[in-house]
Design goal:
Blueprint (H helix, E strand, L loop, with lengths): L2 H4 L3 E5 L4 H12 L3 E6 L2 H15 L3 E5 L7 H11 L4 E6 L14 H29 L2 E6 L12 H20 L5 E6 L8 H5 L14 H13 L4 E2 L3 H12 L2 H14 L4
Helix pairs in contact: 2-3, 2-8, 4-5, 5-6
Bound molecules: NADP nicotinamide-adenine-dinucleotide phosphate.
């Protein structure tokens, strides 16, 4: 049943060269989807595309792009539209965070993070959504984070960028009601991927027992997308964290989150 959503359909995956993006490519190819793989690491994308095409008899295209530079997402959307295929699903997954005091982050990195995590995702949605609405099918799986539910001291830009993704997605899901186009935010907790090295953080020891694998996170994320869940948090501990962030005073949540980052040596 769920394979009907993907079999023979084209899916654009950003950040497909590692972590969740690579797992999305592997799992969606296994469900019969044709892949448009994007990231900056061309060799990795080509190797992955060739492996999955020959294993699952699906087609693939590679569009290498830096989405943290001005105009990057516009250019990716134009290149994708020029491929001449109907893109039915977009996994807006590329993103990064950086741990440490905001006063040491620097304006350039902050702007790049917002451009990738928020602007690129928005531009791709703006350019690739209208044909889906016209066809009355398709959708976007926007990769947010549990960090989007709360203030995240010492990763404040990252958490705020993911709060944008959550609210943008929920707003659009309401606008799209009845159109046949779905809009889902996947909000994982910490998962071991390339994210930690890029962010300069490690998964806290007290979090390790509840950490899901990237493969499992993506598997559950795809099922939630198929079920048309607007916001999905994989894992019971992560779900509880999201609920606590909703009901506890914001300042208290910020204090606890800041303390955790201090304990991890990132403050
Ligand atoms: N892992 C976690 O704990 C966790 C938890 C919650 C949410 N997330 C979110 O999950 C998403 C995927 O992250 P991940 O955990 O899979 O990390 P990852 O392994 O570091 O993957 C990040 C992907 O984004 C791409 N990327 C980074 N900078 C880019 C740029 N400037 N332009 C285009 N592509 C770029 C990378 O490819 P190239 O380097 O080849 O460009 C890579 O494919 C992110 O949005 C992240 O915020 C992660």
């Amino acid at each position: 049943m769920s394979d009907d959503l993907f079999r023979g359909r084209w899916v654009l995956i950003t950040g497909a060269s590692s972590g969740f993006g690579e797992d999305f490519a592997r799992q969606l190819a296994a469900r019969g989807a044709h892949l448009i793989l994007s990231a900056r690491s061309e060799a990795k994308l080509r190797a992955l595309g060739e492996e999955l095409s020959s294993k699952h008899r699906v087609e693939h295209r590679v569009v290498t792009k830096d989405l943290a530079v001005a105009g990057g997402a516009d250019s990716l959307a134009d290149d994708v539209l020029a491929l001449g295929v109907e893109v039915d699903h977009v996994i807006n997954n590329a993103g990064f965070g950086i741990g440490g005091p905001f006063s040491e982050l620097g304006a350039k990195r902050a702007a790049e993070m917002l451009r990738l995590n928020c602007e690129a995702l928005t531009v791709l949605t703006a350019k690739l959504l209208p044909p889906m609405v016209a066809r009355g099918r398709g959708g976007f799986l926007q990769v947010a984070s549990v960090a989007g539910f709360q203030p995240t001291p010492y990763m404040s830009v990252y958490g705020a960028s993911k709060a944008y993704v959550v609210n943008f997605t929920v707003g659009l899901a309401e606008e799209l009601r009845g159109t046949g186009v779905r809009m889902s935010a996947l909000c994982p907790g910490p998962v071991a991927t390339g994210f930690q090295a890029a962010a300069g953080i490690e998964i806290a020891p007290q979090q390790r027992a509840s950490v899901l694998s990237s493969e499992e996170t993506v598997r559950r994320g795809i099922e939630a997308y198929v079920a048309n869940n607007t916001v999905f948090v994989p894992g019971a501990v992560n779900k509880l964290g999201g609920i606590a962030a909703k009901f506890l005073p914001r300042a208290l949540v910020a204090r606890a989150a800041g303390q955790m980052m201090k304990n991890r040596g990132r403050a």
